[in-house]
Amino acid sequence: LSMWGMESVANVLESYRGRDRLVRTVCYSSRLLGGLLTAPGGGHPELGRRLLLVAQELSNCRAALRLFDDLSMYLYSRGYGLGGTEEDAIVRLLSITGNVADQLYYPCEHLAWAADYGILNINSDKWWTLSNSLWSLSLALGALRSFRVVQLLKTELKGSQNKAYLKTEESNNMSRRAYQIRMRVETLNIISCLADLANAVHWMPPGVLWAGRFPEWLVGLMGTVSSVIGLYQMACGSCGTKDP
Q1: Which key words tag this protein in UniProt (predicted)?
Q2: Would you say residue 83 has pLDDT above 90?
């Protein structure tokens, strides 16, 4: 790695969110490669099993660290409030509902985690299903919100082009670039949410859509796509999705 590259990685690792995103990427990449190696014809099943074990341990690590995320989620939700700064009522409603789902997700997952480790004498499956359902809802709402924002941006961009004669060419080009950058961010967020949503449905109880039907490599692929987008968003200074 070059000095610039090492400094960039170090800067990411210094923050909790950056470290979590990097660990998430390694986790799902290990699952992708491990799934491919253990699949029929993969050729290296023992190496694949080791990579899947690494992925599982990293996933457990992230779940333990999320025990401390409730307060930061609450402060984020309180800061957003009822979305007074949002001009569009649909975007506001989707955002508020998504924040509620995220806030409820964490305590449900904590209870499931505590049950798995024998700290609480309760049925962990029920709480895992509930937390996964809340995560799925949050992802679906996030995708819908970004889709709505893209539609609004297209309308605004078309309107700005119709009024281009009122602006200088330079200011009009800057405005168009700003819209395009925002549209790219929201489009990537849609892809990220849908990739995670595919996995979330896979982890639902049997009988729900494609629950339980994904091979390990496909779970790893969906998670890797979402994780790489998250790293890219962080590098660009844009706001990514909340991603268990």
Answers
A1: Membrane, Peroxisome
A2: no
